[in-house]
Amino acid sequence: MAENEDGSEKTESASSKKLQDARAKGNLPRSKDLSSALLLIVAAVTIYGTGTLLVRDLSVLFNFNFIVERKDIFDLSRMVFHLYESVVAMMDSMILLMSVLAAAGIIGSIALGGLNFSWEPLLPKLSKMSPIAGIKRMFSMQSLVELLKSIAKVSLVGLVAVLVINYFLPETLALTFQAIELSVAHGIDIVVWSFVFVTLALVLIAAIDVPFQIWSHKEKLKMTKQEVKDEFKQQEGDPQVRGRIRQLQRQAAMNRMMSDVPEADVIITNPTHFSVALKYDQTGGSAAPIMIAKGGDFIALKIREIGNHYDIPVIQSPELARAIYRHTEIGDEIPQGLFKVVAQLLAYVYQLRNARTGAPMPDPMPTLDVPDEFRWDGE
């Protein structure tokens, strides 16, 4: 099992953040064997598919260079011309082959891990220049595994290559006795089939190497339990700091709510446990009264104090106060089921307000009957 530098075991899978950080640094699972196998497969297929074009170009090249007059050999300009004509003769087939192989090389290198751009691997690191660190890497378990893999690959590919050479050796020697065009076509067949057999060996190696690279990459990025906790703290913040932020946010919301209390038309109380402040702005287009503040215990007392200071009517109606507190949020209109009882209360409040300017005193406040579905005992 993987261990950290301090000896703690890495038992946890890498988090999404650590995977993203590793990708940003260019740390991705890669398989050189997969790239090599794909390159050989594409090369074999391309040579086989473009065999006619390749045979034609090679035939022209051989005929042109095997038949050289003696005077041309001692003329530098003629030799340069021969070189130029040779390059031109092979230009179209070579450009096609090299382009396909270049594309195959790029695709093979990103087939495992995907496309990724990062400058991190190019940056100089002092740790890579340290002789001690270099010796540790040379004699590490990873180096031993890579050495064994290399020996196994060379042995397998070498064995297949020897078998292929022995199998095609008689045909290869016979090429010298054939006409040029026939010899080139036959030689291309031998090369293609040699690619096929060697590629099969590399495909077998890649089939083993790809899962190993994926597993090795995950193992290297595993985290200890402490690393997971530290990363969570970095992303979410320290619990004490978050608690302090929430406290400040609640305090700011409370201050905003208290600053709206002086605009209330009426404050309804429990009378001691709950207080709610309602505002009905007929000119503002409100369809129903809006609750602008609510609170329990100390906050309820503070709302009443502000109401008394600004001479806002404070009405004791325990059932209505509990119902509005329970079923309405700050800034929302009261529920439709409470329209009638709140309208009766506001009508009484407006009559009290008019009585202060000389109007007759209103009759006693009517009984405020809260519908059964809105009743709440406050527990």
UniProtKB/TrEMBL annotation:
NCBIfam families, per database record: flhB
Protein family per UniProt: Belongs to the type III secretion exporter family.
Main location: membrane
Membrane-spanning segments: 37-55, 94-119, 147-170, 190-215
Domain of life: Bacteria
A Pfam family of this chain: Bac_export_2
Disordered as annotated region, ranges: 1-29
Organism: Marinomonas sargassi
Source lineage: Bacteria, Pseudomonadati, Pseudomonadota, Gammaproteobacteria, Oceanospirillales
Protein name according to UniProt: Flagellar biosynthetic protein FlhB
Record's keyword terms, sorted: Bacterial flagellum biogenesis, Bacterial flagellum protein export, Cell membrane, Cell projection, Cilium, Flagellum, Membrane, Protein transport, Transmembrane, Transmembrane helix, Transport
Location of this chain's protein in the cell: Cell membrane
Bilayer disposition of the protein: Multi-pass membrane protein
UniProt function note: Required for formation of the rod structure in the basal body of the flagellar apparatus. Together with FliI and FliH, may constitute the export apparatus of flagellin.
InterPro entries attached to this UniProt entry: FlhB, T3SS_substrate_exporter, T3SS_substrate_exporter_C
